[in-house]
Fold this sequence. Notes:
mainly alpha, single chain, about 250 residues
Amino acid sequence: MPREHAPKEEQLPEVTHATGHDELARSATERSRLYGLLATVFRREPSAEFLCQMKTPELVVALAGAGVDLGDEFESGSFAALAEALAIEYTRLFLGPGRHISPHESVQLKRGSGILWGPETPIVRQAYRDAGFDLGETETDIPDHISVELDFLSLLAGQEAQAWSDHDKAGAAKTLKLQHEFISRHLGKWASAFCAKVEEEAEFSFYPAFADLLRGYLSGEKAEVVHRLSILGGLSTLDTHDTNLQSLNG
């Protein structure tokens, strides 16, 4: 099971283009942490401890700077009570029973199968394996769950950071191309519509706030990954299928 990512101030990177190796490594680390934080938010209902960590002054400032508004309910009452309320919200939104927003690519993908463990799921799992990772191998971690896809991007961005630190241009190019392909072929094709549904159906501000952050951040990632590849001269080697990074709306 992936580790729960404790929120940190540096998990909310500024939307600016890095250039030098050290700066590129730092911003890739920040991107990795943000993906990890978003994976934690959508993986399961939050604990009181996790919510408490999000109220540290540094993270409050960082979230506000990123335009994240967690609502009045986050400012009042106990974390235990809020965690209980958000657990009910999480179940209603993402688990059911009854009508809910399945956080899986196979269900949400436009013109896809629309079923859990559909034919899209093993394709996502193969993308992980092709990159050298085994993710989503348990009943609770289905490979195309949004949290697992975000974990994958977090791991890739972490590898990218290490490559920049090592001045390993080939390694950085490899991980960037994997990020480019995965956003184009998978998460970027369904996350925006998923986030819009969350914003429409949620009763509390918590999940819409992070859905809005995810949608906006993924949109910015398209330009960021292309920018980093351009530094390495790697754009010419991308598959023509992915060169324009398909719309997040699918």
